[in-house]
Amino acid sequence: MRRAAPPPQPKMAALKHRRTALERVEKFISEVYFTDCNLRGRLFGDRCPAASLSCFQTPRRIPYDEAVRQEFTPAKVGDSFGPTWETCWFKVELSIPPTWAGREVHFVWESDGEGMVWRDAQPVQGLTKEGEKTSYILTSSLKETEPHSMTLYVELACNGLFGAGKGSMIAPPDPDRRFTLTKAELVIFNRDVYELLVDLEILLDMAQLLGEENQRSFQALYTANQMVNVCDVSDPSTFPAARDLAAAIFSQRNGESQHTIHAVGHCHIDSAWLWPYEETIRKCARSWVTVVRLMECNPELTFACSQAQQFEWVRSWYPGLYAQIQDFVAKGRFIPVGGTWVEMDGNLPSGESMVRQFLQGQRFFQEQFGQICSEFWLPDTFGYSAQLPQLMRGCGIRRFLTQKLSWNLVNTFPHHTFFWEGIDGSRVLTHFPPGNSYEMHGRVEEMLKTVKNNKDKGRVNHSAFLFGFGDGGGGPTQKMLDRMKRMSDTDGLPRVQISTPDRLFSVLEKESSQLCTWVGELFLELHNGTYTTQAQIKKGNRECERILHDVEVLSALALARSSTFQYPTSELQRLWRLLLLNQFHDVLPGSCIQLVVEDALRYYAGEQGVWMGEHWVLAGGAPESTLVLNTLPWERTEVISRTGPAGTETLGMSNSCIRISSRGRGGWQRNILPPPEDGSITMENGVIAVCLDSMGRLTSLHLVGSERESVPEGCYANQFALFDDVPLYWDAWDVMDYHLETRKPVTTLLKPLEISLAGGLRGSASFSLQIGKSSTLTQEIILDATCPYLRFLTQVEWKEAHKFLKVEFPLLVRSTNATYEIQFGHLQRPTHWNTSWDWARFEVWAHKWLDLSEHGFGVALLNDCKYGASAHRNVLSLSLLRAPKSPDATADMGHHQFTYAVMPHRGSFQDAGVIQCAYNLNFPLHPVPASSAQCPEAWSSFSVSSPAVVLETVKQAEDSPGAMVVRLYEAHGSTVVAWLRTSLPVQEATLCDLLERPVAGGCLPLEQRGIRLSFTPFRVLSLLLVLRRDATFSHLDNLEERPELKW
Ligand SMILES: [Zn+2]
User: Fold this and answer.
1) Pfam families per the record (predicted)?
2) Average pLDDT for residues 77-102, to the nearest whole number?
3) Centroid of ligand 1 to alpha carbon of 584 (angstroms)
């Protein structure tokens, strides 16, 4: 008789209590609870301390070769090192126990400083606890043939991923911080446990985040619960069954319409911020070597990497690593993006600087990797100029990625994928990753947010997802990749594919028929204090932009005049790259620590020492006369001063760029009238007339011969005002709307207005004010003969805390819009606060001028180094100085000198020459001592027939020493034909793009009238001019032939 088999035991169904099931799974993988009996507690097996540990410490960042030659002294886990910014090199002897055969062995290093592991003289792994990287994998399965003993070096920087802020991330660095070594050991890593943990984390996230209305949430929960049932943590043979359960649910596929996420590895590294430039070099190496390790183990991993400067740093400091990177670039996996030298500020650099960001960047990428970037990449910058689309297009780029506008404080930007149209009409396809981040971790929550947040649902169904620790570096981790592998196509979650920027944008381009267009600037409604903070950096930037402009112009002309002249090609490249580096989006905006400010000012000082005007004049002869160099493309008649041999200053008048005699031509009309009894002073120069009160304020300003007043009755222009300036968090970055409610006019007079120069070619009057409790301001108000603007040469001793100084010009002008100069053009912004989009722009930026005009009349405000401005109703304000205390406690303290000017004008600002006057203020004439023989009557190289067109740049062509590049732009906002004439022996003229690549069909005929150029509003044109080298060149001959030429 056979006995019947026992009936199968019915499997226990999951109980219906959602909360206990959820928390049960949570506890099973918890790092905090029940680690003695849960799965997490089994992640690591046996441990073994380092066989020996020794170290030596240095204040400098030194190369490996130098470090290993030093004397190392014994160290141990638990020791602390410092202070901040020092470097500790550790020598670590390891010996893996033979009983670990077949096991995965990690070297685990934990410290609050940033570490780099060196092995056999090569950097092999970045270890940064904050970036979730504490393991260097020695072997995935220890074989007998493998070395069991080895020596590693660990280079430990005494700073964290975000520097060393005292008390908060953006506080000034704590100079005395100590950094502790908490782990240095060998461990067995149980990969099967790790894989199960990743499965369970994702299922738990799905269960929680998809919510009770979603059946996938319950599937995930019950699967996870069942996995806990199946797993016996002490018996790894039970793990595969649990993993099968997870695999079964992850492999349930989506429908065709599901959103696709393009995941790209990324590591945003601020080129300097809460740490100095020098540390960034090591951050790049730590982050990128880690990426290379990940790429070796994960053949699908891609990594988008911006900033040519950082590649250049790694190239020169870590050649071995750089060679590995080059291999992965060639494979299309390590992907250079952005095309710029650094991720620069998007508002303040000049048009030419922005061109050079691309020129230096794209040429670097071309030289090093044989390709230029096809996407502009600026995810973390504080607003984007409306001129950028044209500049991108001119540099071979049609695509743009950022996400910073998600930081808007007031208005939510209405798109994630759209066409962005600049002031000239150029358009670029623009994408903001809808998850509003460039440092995702591959979590379920981020995937769901990306889909849900997408503002262009129904228009496009693909989006970017940049994963990896960022800002301070770090980059992707294995865990991020392992998460996303499981989510590649799982019903209920978006499809996730490891992709590339090119693949994403290519798909978006195909889907672009339904996309909307955003016209004009991408203004960030936050961080508006960055137009003003760290005034010396701003001033250094403006000055060096001018110096490089002038040096290039004069060098190019010297080269044209003399074939023996050595154009300073490599020196100019070096200087440009330093200037471009300082335009990084935490340096030029002033949101960096004091160490960075010191570096930046040192770089500027190096550039300020460069001046080659003297070299331009051939040597010889007694300098009894003065040659005046004008680097702008129009004729100028200005008062210039020349310092004589005895140190005495003489004034002279330049006209049409001729030499002046060493004695000033006096006898110009009287500038200043005698003061009446109320202390007021009247100045007049035949063009403008002004009445100043004893505090230097304008009570009247008008054009001579016109009754049209600029200053409203009872108002004062050139009125200083002080505001409380306490933002909500981002101290150096933010000025909040409510600062406007704290306005206090500055009215404490230290020294009343008095005449300092009574007249002749120049008249001036000066006064001093007390600002706040301890700051002082001295101003010289200067009116030059024939000059259409009144200059304010200002000195400030600034000792405030959380105050904001502005100067205001209330004007008798009514307009709903004010005009602001931007790169190669201008734009308008409202003067009212009708809507939230209007009032969110209570503090804006401008370059050399802003203007408020009504029909037939207006007033412009010019400046030589300021960027912050505002126009509310009829008041133009220039933002002068701030006093934030984080991250640089000394920001802006001390002495400042700057100049601004006011210019009333008839007609439009275009017709009145405001643009040219702002250039004149910024590009002073250069009087150079010379002998009479060297001073021609006048010599000019270029002229442009239309006042709407500005010839901005003259330089040697990058690829052809015998050619020159000239760049012009339409500045009025008009469609116009202009003739470019030159006295140089031009043999061939071709239109080129901003990378100086000839445009197909761009050859331009050389006609009797010059070269015909046609412009649409704000169009930037570049020309390659090939010069005849054999030409016998005489400036005087040329001048006689073409008397109208200028320069
Ligand atoms: Zn950044």
Assistant:
1) Alpha-mann_mid (PF09261), Ams1-like_1st (PF22907), Glyco_hydro38C2 (PF17677), Glyco_hydro_38C (PF07748), Glyco_hydro_38N (PF01074)
2) 97
3) 9
State the distance from the centre of ligand 1 to the C-alpha of 194, rounded, in angstroms.
Answer: 32
Do 101 and 143 form a contact (C-beta atoms < 8 A)?
A: yes
- Give 406 Cα–ligand 1 centroid separation in angstroms: 14
* CA gyration radius, the chain: 33
Determine the distance separating the centroid of ligand 1 and the alpha carbon of 404, expressed in angstroms: 10
Cα 352 to Cα 545: distance, rounded to the nearest angstrom: 8
Confidence tier at 937 by pLDDT (50, 70, 90) = low
Taking CA 525 as the corner, what is the angle to CA 582 and CA 834, rounded to the nearest 5 degrees? 140
Question: Cα(381) to centroid of ligand 1, in Å?
Answer: 7
pLDDT confidence band for 641 (50 / 70 / 90): confident
Model's pTM, two decimal places? 0.95
Mean predicted confidence (pLDDT) in 4-12 = 64
Predicted confidence band at 666 (pLDDT cuts at 50, 70, 90)? very low
- Average pLDDT score, the chain: 93
How many whole angstroms from 344 Cα to the centroid of ligand 1? 9
Task: Name the β-bridge partners of 498.
Answer: 263
Give the model confidence (pLDDT) of 410-443 as tens digits.
999 999 999 999 999 999 999 999 999 999 999 9
Strand 875-882 and strand 803-810: the pairing is antiparallel
- How much of the chain, in percent, has pLDDT values that exceed 70? 93
What pLDDT is stored for residue 667 in this prediction? 31
- b/e per residue, 1006-1039, with b = 16+ CB within 10 A? eeeebbebebebbbbbbbbbbbeeeeebebeebb
Q: Put residue 126 in one of left, alpha, beta given phi > 0 → left and psi -120 to 50 → alpha.
A: beta
Instruction: Specify the pLDDT at position 758.
Output: 87
In this model, does residue 1044 exceed pLDDT 70? Answer: no
Enclosing H/E stretch for 364: helix 351-369
Closest CA to 428 of 378, 480, 490: 378
489 counts as catalytic: no
Over residues 301-315, the mean pLDDT reads 98
Nearest to 734 by CA among 408, 460, 448: 408
Q: What backbone torsions phi and psi does residue 769 show, to the nearest 5 degrees?
A: -130, 155
Q: Choose the catalytic residue: 112, 199, 345, 380.
A: 380
**How far does residue 438's CA lie from ligand 1's centre (Å)?**
10
Q: How far is the CA of 53 from the centre of ligand 1 (A)?
A: 36
Q: How far is 570 from 555, CA to CA, in rounded Å?
A: 13
Interacting residues of 504 by C-beta distance below 8 A, sequence separation 6+: 262, 264, 431, 462, 463, 464
pLDDT of residue 928: 82
Distance from residue 81's CA to the centre of ligand 1 (Å): 28
Strand 399-401 with 427-431, pairing: parallel
- Quick check: 158 and 275 in contact, CB under 8 A? no
- Please spell the DSSP secondary structure of 721-744, one letter per residue: EEEE---SS-TTT---GGGGGG-E
Contacts of 924 (CB under 8 A, 6+ apart): 640
Q: State the Cα–Cα distance between residues 693 and 527, nearest whole angstrom.
A: 36
- Structure tokens that stand for 897 in this block: 């000198």
At residue 648, the pLDDT reads: 77
Among candidate residues 1025, 961, 1018, the one with its CA nearest the CA of residue 393: 1018
